[in-house]
TrEMBL record:
Gene3D superfamilies assigned: Glutaredoxin
NCBIfam families: CXXU_selWTH
Keywords on record: Redox-active center
Protein's UniProt keywords contain Cell wall biogenesis/degradation: no
Name this protein carries in UniProt: Selenoprotein
Organism phylogeny: Bacteria, Pseudomonadati, Pseudomonadota, Alphaproteobacteria, Hyphomicrobiales
Organism: Methylobacterium thuringiense
Bias-annotated ranges (Low complexity): 97-112
Residue ranges, annotated region (Disordered): 88-112
Length: 112
């Protein structure tokens, strides 16, 4: 997908989910989280029906999460970080990236 004014292609995210397992709601929620966080930085977020326990998230042809390979479903923090690392590595995700380990250790607060 292209941005009309610049002709630069924006990233496409595809979330493949198992229809037999009824994972549509989970896939839709993850799509919503990505769109809320990355907004206009994404060209498309597609939900792709699959079967046989499939659950994978692919950014521009590169798998960033696969349920079997990665041991289950991603939490939203991990998902956003992996997508960010693929489309805009320098981007700060604010509270999703959390405080530095030293800051968290010094006050005993878990900010992740």
């Amino acid at each position: 997908m292209e941005e009309p004014s610049s002709g630069i292609a924006k990233p496409r995210v595809a979330i493949t989910y198992c229809t037999q397992c009824r994972w549509l709601l989970r896939a839709g929620w993850m799509a919503q989280e990505l769109l809320s966080t990355f907004g206009d930085s994404l060209g498309e977020v597609a939900l792709v029906p699959g079967r046989g326990g499939a659950f994978a998230i692919v950014v521009d042809g590169e798998t960033v999460w696969e349920r079997v390979r990665d041991g289950g479903f991603p939490d939203v923090k991990a998902l956003k970080q992996r997508v960010r690392d693929r489309i805009d590595p320098g981007r700060d995700l604010g509270h999703v990236d959390g405080a530095s380990a030293a800051g968290a250790a010094s006050d005993g607060q878990d900010r992740a």
